[in-house]
Write a structure and sequence with these properties.
With about 325 residues, this protein is of the alpha+beta class. The chain is about 40% helix and about 15% strand.
Length: about 325
Amino acid sequence: MARCIFHIDLDAFFVSVEQALNPELKGKPVIVGGDPERRGVVASASYEARPFGIHAGMPLSKARRLCPQAILIRANFSRYKDASNRFMEILADFSPDIEPLGLDEAYLDVTGYEEPYGSPRQLAQAIKERINKELKLTASVGIATCKVVAKIASDLCKPDGLLEIAPGEEQAFLNPLPIAKLPGVGEKTEQSLKEMGITTIGELASLPLDTIKRRFGATGAVMHNYAKGIDDREVEAPGEAKSISQQLTFARDTLDRNFLEANLHNLCQEVCQELRSQNKRAKCVAIRLRYADFKTITRQVILKEASNVTKVVFATAQQLLSKTLAKQKNQYAS
């Protein structure tokens, strides 16, 4: 029996939660973010705001210039965490095999659980209806035999969509898509592939494995499998966390210090909110930076006293970022 994997993604999550609580915001350009007076950044933008070029991670000052009429709302992470918990509880009613990916998306293995509903598509529709009825939110669902294809499908059918890729149709679905649609292909990797004459997922799939491995190593082998719709990863429930973390991938590579610090503050705020909700404190603060060539640098420090205060954690993370950027700058200069 072929596996049946769902990727379920809540649309414009933070904004949608605010619109559910205040219906007057629906149909308007809305931005959820940090403090605009402290180099805040966009955390989420409504679909009405996106045509103006607004996206997550953008400085709020720029977003306000692009769309002066946008309604700005300060992020309330406890509110979003509550909505996320209710979202995961709904999913658990349909299958016990859940793998959350942050607050607003998850993989769901429904193999064998779709039979009472008649088909995977009808099961997905039932999930969407529950989410809309109970949370007043919309979700997009990708259905496939593996994670990577389900993820791409859900991305392509947003917002409020449902896209099923039948078993055996993975390659035909993937082939014409731009290479940037493949998870793991960032701007630099996309440029490198284009230099090799690769612009679509199908062209990557047809490339000899040795060729892609020589250019990208082990990462290339994974990309090559994904391009063929091959992904054997299981849907795995997370174990008890020994750490609490947040991460962000930028749409474009950057070393802009102000931009990085604003995003770092946002991430520290989310982490500390989660620590406080679990009545925990952090003894170690760490940052991880990944560059366009996939080089990853991790720096950490032990606090003198465990803390869940955003100001304390951010100040420590900010120092780690400063030292890391200074070291990298010196390396490049030499």
